[in-house]
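Regression test attached.
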Amino acid sequence: MDDRIKRHAEVLVDWSARIEAGDDVVLAVSPGAHELAVATAELLGERGANLVTTRSSGEIARAYLSAHDDEFDADPAHELALYENADAYLSLGGGHNTSATADVPAERRQAHAKAREGVREARMDTDWVSTVHPTRSLAQQAGMAYEEYQEFVYDAVLRDWDSLADEMDRMKDLLDEGSEVRLVSANTDLTMSIDERTAVNSCATVAYDSHNLPSGEVFTAPYGTTGHVEFDVPMTIHGKRVRDVSLTFEDGEVIEYDAGQNADVIGDVLDTDAGARRLGELGIGMNRGIDRFTDNILFDEKMGDTVHLALGRAYDANMPDGVAGNDSAVHVDLITDVSEDSRLEIDGETVQRNGRFRWEEGFE
Amino acid sequence: MDDRIKRHAEVLVDWSARIEAGDDVVLAVSPGAHELAVATAELLGERGANLVTTRSSGEIARAYLSAHDDEFDADPAHELALYENADAYLSLGGGHNTSATADVPAERRQAHAKAREGVREARMDTDWVSTVHPTRSLAQQAGMAYEEYQEFVYDAVLRDWDSLADEMDRMKDLLDEGSEVRLVSANTDLTMSIDERTAVNSCATVAYDSHNLPSGEVFTAPYGTTGHVEFDVPMTIHGKRVRDVSLTFEDGEVIEYDAGQNADVIGDVLDTDAGARRLGELGIGMNRGIDRFTDNILFDEKMGDTVHLALGRAYDANMPDGVAGNDSAVHVDLITDVSEDSRLEIDGETVQRNGRFRWEEGFE
């Protein structure tokens, strides 16, 4: 086995999920992630954890959803019980076709997600971590050769996480002390409140309430958003390519939207529920091991010199105790490149300009 | 998709497991069984069942077990809760290597199984069904070409189960009314009591307490066995090839054993515990869609014109209420061909001769 796969599993089990003896772990394996699953299972055995392995197959999901009607039972007891009794949930992405569910009607997908909100919450209450194993399908999505893509993934995952965590703490401190964020670039001028919100230093470990591997972003939960924003990074949302999304906000809500391609996908997202029209997240990408867009949100939103905003659900970790964040069945990230002609202000002070943070050389 | 896969899924979901709207189903998918999983998921969606998909991978199990020590936590809460809350468990066998766990020490495997007896019981309390998808690995084990093996599997699975169930009911009635069974062939003359035992018509549906697909056997729990029996069908037991096993019984217990190859495997089985020296099952194979031995017990023991006896554990379904059957940690099936020079008597009356049942043409 490729030694990098073993090191990936080590980062996942030890740095990210902090698995200990006796932990009840659900390992969710995509069809192309078998090797990473084997390496992970070996470590889970070594640590004395208990293992249930599930299969995350887009083709199985498509077959099931396509044949089902729009009425789904709420929170099936067996699935709910599995996650309510789990300590950790490790999701190993990496299938054979990123468009495997492309022809499932959006309403069907939404109805299914909505009916299983309790299951999702129970899963999110565990020490969950999402990662991907590099597959040929993901390489294709990234427009890269297979070996090239493997390098890309391991550059992003096999980092010195301790030292990146220190750097990200600086950004977290700025956001925690600030009340208002303004994002300005060629066609964007957007203002968001972040008062009383706590930023999360997302350095790929549950110990920091960070659940993606790779990670490398600092995020918070904005509200009262006003202004206009354009997202110049193309994305695949619900299996469809979406480009040049623009959103106009008033009093925290989207009042206008458009896109250069597949605008209806954004319309579907916004129509999911009331919370889908509000922002759930403002994230600042700081992982410079990620040096290009690969049409995969797990990597794109962590890329150094990008900012992303998510429509929908906010994370509890950003909220004051006892205050509920924006609630929605969806959480859809949209990304904008801030490496040129851009600035990010906190309470009127520029903290990032053209991709340089204010503590970095070249900022002035 | 091959139409036979869809028909297999239909038999599994509708005839075997009797899935209804709202059922909480666990679908356990082996690495080579993806297509059958897709066809099954489609039907589960159509029926309005709720789906959790698990992955049954020998390689993942091997990695986990090999790295673990011999101390396993008893009945992990998440796994137990999953099955305690499930209505049905559908296991789709068919991997890429039937020897995937060959180098896991037997004690490790046993310790793991023992620690998870509660999980096994919870799974057995659901409407569980085991079937296999034909893979190249299983074709190889059967010594058959891939296409040839597919034909073989679908001949066994895609039967007119209603009509086979009717025929098997005749055999069940004969066994239920009888007190003593005698099996006679060239080197065999064995007598067993079956008084007060209830035969199970195993016609591949939970509605008849039958959990294998294919099935096609009628079985009961014999006792007081006396005489000599030879098993001319080769088997793989605990990973070793065993041929021409012979057993001599007195007062229900094995007093002598031998085999043409790997006799020590039989010795190990008999030494497991006291119950391992007694019979737990007499089964009469009646599925004539199975026309050859393939070194896979799921098929071999159901083959028409065979009889099998199992050393060890008896099934509760054969016992009168409140009476415990033969107890043992093992249940090892041994098969004999009764298509020639053989007869099966119940209370002195011949019910099967040279592979013909007494209600069939050519019996006299």
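Expected vs. actual: identical. Chain A touches chain B through 50 residues (CB under 8 Å).
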